[in-house]
Amino acid sequence: MIRALAIVLVLAAACGGKKSEPTTTPVKSAEQHEEKMPPELAKFHDVLAPRWHAEKGPQRMKDTCAAIPDFTAGVTELAKAPVPAGGDSTKWTAGAGELAAAVSNLDETCKGNDATAFEGAFLKVHDSFHVMLGASGGEMHEEHGEHGEHGEHEHAM
Questions:
Q1: Which of 60, 67, 119, 154 is the most buried (most CB within 10 A)?
Q2: Span 55-77, pLDDT tens digits
Q3: How far apart are alpha carbons 36 and 39 in whole angstroms?
Q4: Whole-Å CA distances, 89 to 18, 96, 102, 146
């Protein structure tokens, strides 16, 4: 299931504040994976996943930076959302703050067009999302090697 989720999606470049959309639809296993997420996390995941799984390079940065309005809207929804049943309210609140800070930092990195800092800033958004998933009581899984298979590190989801 995780391997199927790791399929690299082709992204459509977005301009300005327009909502950016992947050019392909998520595979069925990704949809099944999201069924276990609270709706607000699933919506954020829909913005994060295709960009995270894209090949590293200028296009990934361009597409991710174009999606900053979507990331920001998602963080706002998460901050307003109630803690999911079975979730940890303290971790949820702290995680929402961490994710908001990570998205803000990514936005600043994008505005500075700093390709060197981009991957680290994007990694922080990704990791902060997983903190939120853990705080929600969401399903845990093991990560796989290269970012094309999900991450360059192991952590819980």
A1: 67
A2: 999 999 999 999 999 999 999 99
A3: 9
A4: 33, 10, 20, 32
How far does CA 51 lie from the centroid of its chain? 8
As beta bridge partners, residue 22 has: 11
Per CATH, the number for 37-143 is: 1.20.120
pLDDT number for residue 36:
74
| Model pLDDT for residues 1-45, shown as the tens digit of each residue | 333 222 222 222 232 333 444 333 333 334 444 557 899 999 999
- 113 conformational bin, left if phi > 0, alpha if psi -120 to 50, beta if neither: left
**Cα separation of 35 and 86, whole Å?**
15
> Residue 44 in contact with residue 74, Cβ under 8 Å?
yes
For residues 11 and 23, the answer to whether their CB atoms sit within 8 Å is: yes
DSSP string computed for the chain: -HHHHTSPPPB----TTSPP-BSSPPPHHHHHHHTTS-HHHHHHHHHHHHHHTSPSSHHHHHHHHHTHHHHHHHHHHHHHSPPPTT--HHHHHHHHHHHHHHHHHHHHHHHTT-HHHHHHHHHHHHHHHHHHHHHTTPPP----SSGGGT-SS----
